[in-house]
Amino acid sequence: MDTLSSLQQLLNPQKIAVIGASKSKGKVGEIVFRRLMGSRRRLYPVNPKEIVIEGHKVLADIGSLPQDIDLAVITISAAAAVNAVEECAKKGIPNHIIVAGGFGEVGEEGRKLEQKLKNLTRKYNIRILGPNSLGIFLPDENIDTIFVEHGDKALDRKGKVACIVQSGSVGVEALGYASNTGYGMRAFVGLGNKCDLDEIDFLKYFDQDKKTNCLGFYLENIERGREFLDAAKKTTLKKPVVVLKAGMTETAVSAVSSHTGKLAGSDNVISGALKQFGIQRVYDDEEFCDATKVLSMLKQAPGNRVAVLTAAGGYGVMCTDFIEKDENRAPLKMAKLADATKQKIKEATFDFTACENPVDITASADDRMFSQSLDALIADDGVDIVICIAFFAPPGISENLIDIIAEKTNSSDKPVIVFTKYGPFTDNFIKNLYFAGVVGYPSVGRTVRAARFLVERARILKRLGQEE
Fold this sequence. Notes:
By secondary structure, this protein is an alpha/beta fold. It folds into 3 domains: 3-129, Rossmann fold (3-Layer(aba) Sandwich), CATH 3.40.50.720; 148-297, 3-Layer(aba) Sandwich (Rossmann fold), CATH 3.40.50; 305-466, Succinyl-CoA synthetase domains (Rossmann fold), CATH 3.40.50. Helices cover 42% and strands 18% of the residues. The chain contains 16 helices and 20 strands. It has helices at 3-11, 28-36, 78-90, 108-124, 168-178, 199-208, 225-236, 250-260, 267-276, 285-297, 313-324, 339-348, 367-379, 400-411, 426-435, 444-467; strands at residues 15-19, 42-46, 52-53, 56-57, 71-74, 95-98, 127-129, 135-138, 143-144, 156-165, 184-190, 214-219, 241-245, 280-282, 305-310, 333-334, 359-360, 385-389, 416-419, 439-441. The strands form 4 sheets. The chain has a 7-stranded mixed beta sheet, sandwiched between helices. β18, α14 (400-411) and β19 form a beta-alpha-beta unit. α11 packs parallel to α16 (444-467) and α13 runs parallel beside α14. The protein is elongated, with a radius of gyration of 25 Å.
């Protein structure tokens, strides 16, 4: 079986064996089995110490499993897991997720166990995700092997971002937090120690996956660097590829070694290579979520001229500073508005409206004024991106503004990004914007940075297209 077919079976299994399934509250085998019960897949718990778990008959050993299992999730300790993989392989099970740590990251003995797993993949032609992996989570399929809390109920089930992470905790914490303000994930894959399956395998899989339109990677080391770059360059012509590469300093590189048991390369070399091959690099978990969110929801920007619409003048000035600030990312500039645009806005609002960019329609504005001003900015040929600073505190502004902005966003060829704050209700308003199809952020800096990601994406496509 080729890798793509095998990963199809791994990520969409019909029959799943859980080795070490348990009914003891809090045990990894109990949590994983309980989560998988929502998947509507056939489950086969294996544990010699149990008889029945949640109405499922428990098999005493792996040898008692049927022949057509697609995936074995192995929740037992490191040494026992190696033996379990071999027994599963003899049974003809093609795919394995190993949750346990205690392998290459802990020293020589662990490395020996990891080498045994590698030998088993070759001997039996099987695939292994891990070890030291949280496994997989596909929200729309309710397939979930993650045994730590991860905000799964808050994530949008119809998301389009594939998140492939080397550190499970970075992935689940970042995505769990991002879900507070709306985040859509197609799939989560915890690579763990990568004794077999690695970032290249999943890059190639999600490149072909029709439900995925953006790929995000958290990586500490890239062993097959050139192969990853070549594959990512092909993917990024169709779908954005975002990489959070940790291990920038010498101390951090040493920490990578103790975390995964592997060495990481020079950060300057990696950064230059990612840029050359059209991969968008981010530097922390917040950037990772912000970039993948905006790139999965909005088209690339046609240019870098930004118009700012605000009912709070101070935030308009602050936004201008962020736009005109020199950054390593794609440069932005304030759009020069056409006279006709300014006239439309004045007619829709007040004689005293400040119609130079940023456009300040003041706290006296209402929903209609906001709507017509936004129309005017979107229609202006000198504007490529609109940043909409939407506040719900002014008396004339209602929650209907969410639907108004959504209607403009969904019918516009130009990206519209929203910055909003509303005290303790901020997260909820941004989440409501998200579910209406609007990209929103709770700070000026993050909003402007999101615009840079879109411009960066457009420049990548233009450059790579010229190289073709």
